[in-house]
Amino acid sequence: MAGLSILARSFALLALARTVCSQSVQPLPIPNSFPHDYPGKPNGDFSPEWQNYYLVKDGSLPNVTFPLSRNWAGSITVNRTNHPNDTLFFWAFEHKKGSLTSNATDEPWAIWLNGGPGASSMLGLLLENGPLLVTDNGSLRSNNASWANLVDYVWVDQPVGTGYSTAESDGGYVFDEDEMGADFLNFLRNLVKIFPSLATRPLLLTGESYAGTYIPYITKALFSTPQPPVNLSKIAIGNGAIGSVTEIELLPAVSIIETYPQLIGYDAEVYQYFKTQAHLCGYDFNLTYPQQGKFPSVGDPSPPTEPFRATALAKQPSALLKKRFNALIHAVEAPEAGIVRRDADPTRAEVEAREQKRRAWLAKKNSLLRNRDLSGRANGTIDPWYGCFLTNEVQDYALNFSMPWNLSQEIVVPSLDDYGPYNVYNLVDARAPPLAIDPSIFLNDAKTKAALHAPTSKNWTLQINYPFNSSFTHINGSNPFGDPSIEPVAFLDDLATNATEHGVKVIIYLGNDDSVVPHISSEISIQNTTFGGIQGFTRKPDTPWYDDSGKFAGVVHQERNWTYILVAEAGHEVPEYQPESAFVMYREFILGNNQTGLLTNSSATAIGGEDSSLVVGPNNILFGENSILYGSGTRTSFYAAPSATIASWRSYFAGVVATESAAAASASATAGDHASSDGIVSFGEARVWWIAASFGVAAALTL
Ligand SMILES: *[C@@H]1O[C@H](CO)[C@@H](O)[C@H](O)[C@H]1NC(C)=O
Ligand SMILES: *[C@@H]1O[C@H](CO)[C@@H](O)[C@H](O)[C@H]1NC(C)=O
Ligand SMILES: *[C@@H]1O[C@H](CO)[C@@H](O)[C@H](O)[C@H]1NC(C)=O
Ligand SMILES: *[C@@H]1O[C@H](CO)[C@@H](O)[C@H](O)[C@H]1NC(C)=O
Ligand SMILES: *[C@@H]1O[C@H](CO)[C@@H](O)[C@H](O)[C@H]1NC(C)=O
Ligand SMILES: *[C@@H]1O[C@H](CO)[C@@H](O)[C@H](O)[C@H]1NC(C)=O
Ligand SMILES: *[C@@H]1O[C@H](CO)[C@@H](O)[C@H](O)[C@H]1NC(C)=O
Ligand SMILES: *[C@@H]1O[C@H](CO)[C@@H](O)[C@H](O)[C@H]1NC(C)=O
Ligand SMILES: *[C@@H]1O[C@H](CO)[C@@H](O)[C@H](O)[C@H]1NC(C)=O
Ligand SMILES: *[C@@H]1O[C@H](CO)[C@@H](O)[C@H](O)[C@H]1NC(C)=O
Ligand SMILES: *[C@@H]1O[C@H](CO)[C@@H](O)[C@H](O)[C@H]1NC(C)=O
Ligand SMILES: *[C@@H]1O[C@H](CO)[C@@H](O)[C@H](O)[C@H]1NC(C)=O
User: Is 437 in the pocket of ligand 5 (CB under 6 A)?
Assistant: First the structure.
């Protein structure tokens, strides 16, 4: 049952993607919602008296059969002029008896934000790092790796209208990120009246994905306010949307292949093809340590030169396309799986020809790693079919040609007879469906709603297509999500200068198996930013760190109060995939000041040592896992290429890296020049339509 609502959601988002490019479709209504007053609500201004109102009473939550620390939840107004029903929903947990209501403590506290835009932070609470987690069958369990075991933690649904936060349909949704920041500060002003100690205790502002945009904007709002309501101490961003959407989603295509060469069947020729495309698209940024010069902005991708008519394609799906749509729907965490080649208007014969080719390939799958036929492909020019939408091309490639994504009979879900879904959030998982956990049954239960003082005017959903400017029509210049604000990389220097002045530390962490916001995009942002008077890190991050059991957990590097952490074997939602190492990461590097990976003024190498074999190539990659999960239920299996194939790839790749670094060394000796913006073009009016349509569901589902 849980799967059904997720299925419906995928349909809804597909439909939304289509409205963007078709003028004939009626605009969807903007949802209207308002908070609900429960008995016992105090009168007058917020004060500690409200603690009793917001308290979630023991035993009031269904399915909670284990002890929970004291917790509080409900709606808090953001005091928006003319929009009294705009509220943010919070759920706060204290980490030890009395810690959140005490007035005396100077212990840190923390906030968690999910992204989207439009994703509820209850997703983080109930699936990632909260004290109670939803299981596969809808029951709840306690989480001993919860980040709320270490500090008082507040999960907040925002911007207004997201999750259980309410918004008035008539202009109540945030116009842009500055309005989001203003709302959030008012929420904080009210929250600290309820829990007075939070005004002075050091705040850790943490979040994931599109919170990589929210957090810098909230931080900027705090730095720009003469009397900030809270005492910001650190910000931590996981797999964050800090750069432009092109930079976070498309530029990393080659780094994704390098991390998981399975995607291209360990095929050197295909690798070179993608490298050429990346170069032509201007995606091959060169990170150097120390970094010289600023990178240009990563603008809109070059579109295919073949005219794009996805709507026509979607309206007349052939049997093949229908299957792809099935794959897309069943891949719960990867709805964009199976988006087909963006043909202008393929004739049935063309579609069939492609399918025949693929089937011929499948018929020979005793030779599993057979090279793809590259004949007829672009060579030395941008591919007319994909343009610079390279990540989409990688997905298509894997689904058509690479094991185990294109497995045939092995897949047990009948409608998926041909495809192992491509899970963009966790590349190592090609199971069908990979994830069916759905917190909506718990959150929408009447008992839960009442216990959490949640609004009754709306049902909770994991994600909405956020209507910036209270409209689904994107204004000119907005990004594919409709967000009109410039991406944070545009003001990171200013933010970093302010952060130094205010003693605020910056932690940027990423799960290595994510292909939605891969680490290279954040590393570019770091290398492009001046903090503590110097631009970027001065040494490449390659210090290992370990979890409490001594297992390798990834790479860490720290300079001048900026910390970068790469988490091994973790997807987009790091604490969900690696609860133990995420907990250690939190304790040591976010909450704590563990010096592993730290490069001080006086040290030649980072504390904890450096291992130059750990992070390799121009994209600073950490090799992914050799085995890919596929199948489903009790028939889950691992697919791994023969070890000789892997060894031969590693040796080939080492050769490529060596040749390129020698070339780069001699190039940098002659020219101080760095990135060029070749191949990055701006497309004015066509921009919003094109990008939104091309990203389609992908752009709407960054959680
Ligand atoms: C605001 O909320 C109240 C209920 O508290 C509701 O009656 C009213 O219609 C809402 N106003 C708008 C504009 O939605
Ligand atoms: C917001 O409005 C509420 C209710 O009107 C009021 O009690 C509170 O003090 C206001 N908060 C701010 C930050 O203005
Ligand atoms: C904290 O201070 C408030 C006044 O600001 C007071 O009402 C409350 O009782 C105090 N709480 C504790 C636990 O001392
Ligand atoms: C649900 O799953 C949990 C473990 O994930 C298990 O302990 C529990 O027995 C299951 N409940 C039902 C009703 O299947
Ligand atoms: C930096 O701080 C100044 C005030 O000192 C403020 O005007 C500016 O908006 C802040 N910028 C950022 C990005 O934090
Ligand atoms: C680099 O920083 C500049 C501002 O200093 C910004 O305009 C540009 O977009 C940034 N580029 C990247 C790739 O982050
Ligand atoms: C691309 O062109 C180069 C030189 O023009 C040639 O050596 C190479 O084989 C071509 N590759 C493909 C896949 O056609
Ligand atoms: C409670 O857990 C069961 C599984 O044990 C699940 O089927 C049910 O939907 C859950 N109810 C709520 C309200 O979460
Ligand atoms: C919530 O969902 C239920 C079931 O789909 C529906 O009947 C109800 O009207 C919805 N409530 C609101 C407030 O949208
Ligand atoms: C720092 O973290 C590492 C984990 O990488 C751990 O082994 C070490 O004990 C920690 N050091 C301190 C001082 O806590
Ligand atoms: C890093 O933070 C510490 C403590 O807040 C501060 O003393 C130090 O000056 C900062 N270093 C830099 C380079 O900003
Ligand atoms: C990075 O360096 C390579 C090799 O020198 C060069 O071909 C490429 O154009 C550079 N990338 C950018 C964006 O300048």
Answer: no
